[in-house]
Amino acid sequence: MTIPSGRRCSWKLITQVSCLLLVLSSHKASATCFPAIFNFGDSSSDTGGNHAAFPTETAAEYLPYGQTYFNEPRARYSDGRLTIDFIMETFGFRLLDPYMQSVTSDFANGVNFAISWATSRRVLDYRTLFPLSTQVTQFQLFKKEVTEIINGTSALLAKRGIQPYVNGTSGTTTTQASTAGVAVTTQHPYKKLYDELFRGKNDSFSGAVETTTSQDPELKIALEAARRIPLTEYFEQGLYIISIGTSDFSAGIAKQQTLLDIEAYLPDIVTGITNAVKAIYNEGARTIIVGGVGPIGCLPVQLTVITHDATQLDNFGCLAPYNTLVRSYNVQLKQALVDLRVQLPLATIVYLDNYQLQHNLLFNNTQNGISVGIQSCCGVPSTYNFNDKVQCGETGIVDGGLFLVSQTCPNPVNFTIWDGYHYTEAANRYFARQILSGRYFDLPFSLIPDNCTANQI
Predict the structure, then answer these.
(1) Looking at residue 399, what is its pLDDT?
(2) Hey, what's the signal peptide range on this chain (predicted)?
């Protein structure tokens, strides 16, 4: 087969596809960014995993959740977008789909394993069936299945007489390079190829669409699957985020454990996280952000359900003993990550100081256009706008006949905390901006190198 320098193509099916691949090869890499994000965590970054696992049973499936941005509930524990949503938007990706979501998921630029109430250690008598170890197992299965699909698609293209795309080594579909875990990449090659062949995205190839669809449905099915998943090299080049541990504290508080009881299992929380880091490292992860736990003693839920007196409150009005315990845990986690950097020399492992990040917003909020700190936007009107028996979006009869109605503040943008547990979209946007700035990382690190084209959020 001869293709003139002007890239004229004959219109036989195989020639059409081969020509497409040559045209795709002329596209140069336009940015140096992470090509995919793999997220592990709890409700703070759950984009629908809990809904997929337990449909109709989660509060985030109902208004007023989602009212600010989506204008409908989107199974997120906020009035709008989460921090992970803003990070995805920064890189120009669609919002991260949960691993367990069927039918509509598109994992081309990553996958979300986070699920509400997830803990670092196994707490079988608590409200989660998806601890961090299970999320990691799901990731391992996901990677195995992705590899099989990509290899199968490459083999099918080879059968058609087309040089297959394999691990970025073929110059026909994309230009790939890796530096410190950051990938240079064009548009996902299988998505682009699918669009060219079966959706007529490029007018010069629109005449091939009908012929290709009718004559090679097997190729269409293969590319349909391949375009919705990461390339195999994305598992090494992608960004991994693990932010979990809050529910481990909440589990103890819910069971009315003492501070000493909770302190005793802090090393187990740390071990759960370090085991996860090792496991994903063995699967190729090379850039890993691990988040510490925020100031849970400042949350309306804990300030309401934990019996205390004024002597236990610090100058900010937070439960000092619990925040002290959290800080102790964060110190242990940071040290464990220092040790991991020695054990896993090929990885960049970064600690994210969620405690200072969240505390600074709560108590310096007027600097950021947010005027309300430790009071919920959505909840039963009270000191903290929180009632554990009638929560955000609910009504109920309590305390021998008292009828309570949850109310939502008129301007969530002015509030830091949404429902007593979780943060507002305004707060999440602030968190994302600070994370992207690198200000709260313990190890100098930039998520947006100078040659990465990023969107403003």
Answers:
(1) 85
(2) 1-31
Would you say the pTM of this structure is higher than 0.85? yes
Decide if 43 contacts 117 (C-beta within 8 A). Answer: yes
Average pLDDT in the 31-36 region?
82
Residue entry with tokens 């929560």: 391
- Domains of the chain (ranges plus CATH)? 33-144+234-442 (3.40.50.1110)
| Residues 6 or more apart whose Cβ sits within 8 Å of residue 97 | 47, 48, 104, 105, 106, 107, 111, 112
CA distance 362 to 53: 32
- Letter for the amino acid at 207? G
Both tokens assigned to 297: 């003693």
DSSP 366: G
Please answer whether residues 287 and 182 qualify as being in contact, where contact means their C-beta atoms are separated by less than 8 angstroms: yes
Check whether the bond before 64 is cis (ω within 30° of 0).
yes
pLDDT of residue 22: 33
Whole-angstrom Cα distance, residue 37 to residue 238? 6
For residue 369, what pLDDT is reported?
84
Element (H, E) at 329: helix 320-343
Q: Which amino acid type is present at position 67?
A: Q
Q: What angle do CA 343, 344, 349 make, to 5 degrees?
A: 115
Q: Identify the weakest region by mean pLDDT among 98-107, 181-190, 216-225.
A: 181-190
**Long-range contacts formed by 197-202: CB under 8 A, 24+ apart:** 197/16, 197/17, 197/20, 197/223, 198/223, 202/23
Which has the higher per-residue pLDDT, 206 or 48? Answer: 48
From edge to edge, which strands make up the β-sheet containing 348-352? 110-112, 37-41, 239-243, 287-291, 348-352, 441-442
Pairing of β 441-442 and β 348-352: antiparallel
pLDDT band at 283; cut points 50, 70, 90: very high
Q: How far apart are CA 29 and CA 177, in angstroms?
A: 10
Q: Alpha-carbon distance 393 to 73, whole Å?
A: 11
Residue 86: per-residue pLDDT:
98
Each residue of 167-212: pLDDT tens digit? Answer: 544 333 333 333 333 433 457 888 877 877 777 665 443 344 444 4
Distance CA 193, CA 323 (A): 52
Distance of CA 89 to the CA centre of its chain: 11
* Dist. CA 126–CA 246, nearest whole Å: 13
Secondary structure (3-state) at 404: strand
